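Notebook entry, structure prediction.
Reason for the run: the old model in the group folder had no record of what sequence produced it. Starting over properly, with the input documented here first.
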Amino acid sequence: MEIFGIPLQAFLGQLLLGLVNGSFYAMLSLGLAVIFGLLGIVNFAHGALYMIGAYVAYVLLDRWGINFWFALVLSPLVVGALGAVIERTLLQRLYKVDPIYGLLLTFGLALIAEGVFRYWFDVSGQSYPVPDALEGATNLGFMILPNYRAFVVFASLTVCLATWFIIERTRLGSYLRAGTENPTLVQAFGINVPVMVMLTYAAGTGLAALAGVLAAPVIQVTPLMGSSLIIVVFAVVVIGGMGSILGSILTGLALGIIEGLTKVFYPEASNIVVFVIMAIVLMIRPAGLFGKEK
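New structure, fully documented this time:
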């Protein structure tokens, strides 16, 4: 059986691989959406923090023998702590000025981080092994799916939905939203808004690090891994709607699948299809698919 001249087996296989890529897009765009939606910061350092998360996992294994499962917890905590330091020492000074300054600052931080890691580790990639419990593959009939890639999809969806639920459906989430919209009023109720803002940024950077750890066994860990992905992730956030958490999740998954299918039907366009879709969406709906029109 064929679909538009493409064997069904190849079609379904690429569809599933697109879902794996979409899971990374969703996870990374989620962290960006949390930071922009709650703090109004265009965090261009997100790709660098994703890269640092992967390197933390690599160093933990290479130097101290700490395995993937512990790294999955420790790396987001380490990078989240780094994010808290960045927010307290640098970003908090820029909240009352034009957002372009926050973008320029985080872009500069991304370049510094990339330069430091290129000096420490060179540009050659480092391999990170798949954890023993997730080795092997499952025969789905139409393709052989590596067990680790299936785990990535499950873990990404779980984290994305849990984050959305916390921010949109819990009291903590309501405090976060209120604290960014009217900090004076929220502080009057005894809530430490500066600490809450710091923890929000730390959580967003932790999500980037978590995505980096999940990506480490799939791709080579290299100082350039963040910069090669962040532009696509920003396009995902713009399409979904800047600050829309649910929009970032759904758009990330959808665009990963679309990109995968494009590789089947028209491989030459697979590297630009996300940006073509972004241009079309912005012409029709400038706020993005799930964004709020002002």
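Summary: The mean pLDDT is 88.
The old model has been moved to the deprecated folder.
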